[in-house]
Amino acid sequence: MSEKPLVALRGIEKRFASGVRALGGLDLDVRQGEFLSLLGPSGCGKSTALRLIAGLSEPNSGAVEWRDGARPEIGFVFQEPTLMPWTSVAKNVFLPLRLQGVAWRDAASRVREALAGVGLAGFADAYPRELSGGMRMRVSIARALVTKPPLLLMDEPFAALDEITRFRLNDDLLALAAQLKTTVIFVTHSVFESVYLSSRIAVFAARPGRVTETIEISAPRVRHSDFRLAPEFSDYARRASAALDAASGARAA
Asked: What angle do CA 71, 67, 56 make, to 5 degrees?
């Protein structure tokens, strides 16, 4: 991993028009190639931090600093798949390329590759209404990765899924991120999901959000179900749970 972070948030303050102070003095480094989970209680500003990184919002003060001076290509997966119901799976995945001006004839092979990567090679002509919730989320992931962005932002994408589907998507996501060498920032309020997926966890305090502790997860990047049964997984989960409990009661000065 590069010594200089891919992106750094420095002294970020974010206050909404309602007066809610979402982030207060947030400092966060994102390393090239890591899988970083933002773990914290609901409403602590995790999703706000993602939107600032994506350029969908601006801080009231502080800075978002990019290693190369400019924001790179970014893929974003939201809590809901947000697919276009009137068109096919393939054309949904094609959307980012179409917005870049790429013609379908030039994009078709890239769309097929992205769908194969999420296990949906046989569903290019299906429509979102014909898919399960987990399959729709796979389409959303394929759409975010079809441009092969160096940075993928994910805002609690698996929160509404059943546990078995969630576990499978966790495994597939880890394999894809390793294969594409994509840096991932993943928002969650699940201790167990954060430990399973991450190379590092940033624990957020209750609003206004800021990082109170970071936890390095020293385990292979691609993991399997047996990791959940390992003593080290339990140790990391206990540490993350304790950090989350402490952060939930933290208050800014």
From this structure: 25
pLDDT of residue 207: 84
Surface-to-core class of residue 191, CB atoms within 10 Å of its CB (0-12 exposed, 13-18 middle, 19+ buried): buried
Q: What is the mean pLDDT of residues 108-118?
A: 95
Residue 218: helix, strand or coil by DSSP?
A: coil
- Give the range of the structural domain holding residue 36, as residue numbers without chain letter: 1-72+187-253
Q: Residue 34 corresponds to which amino acid?
A: E
Q: Which amino acid is at 229?
A: L
With residue 15 as reference, give the H or E element that holds it: strand 7-15
> Is 63 within the bounds of a domain?
yes
Distance between CA atoms of residues 1 and 35, nearest Å? 11
Q: What is the CATH number of the domain that holds 2?
A: 3.40.50.300
Q: What is the pLDDT of residue 1?
A: 47
Q: Which amino acid is at 106?
A: D
Q: Write phi, then psi, for 114 (nearest 5 degrees).
A: -65, -40
Whole-angstrom distance, CA of residue 67 vs CA of residue 197: 24
Model confidence pLDDT, tens digit, residues 145-194: 999 999 999 999 998 899 999 999 999 999 999 999 999 999 998 999 99
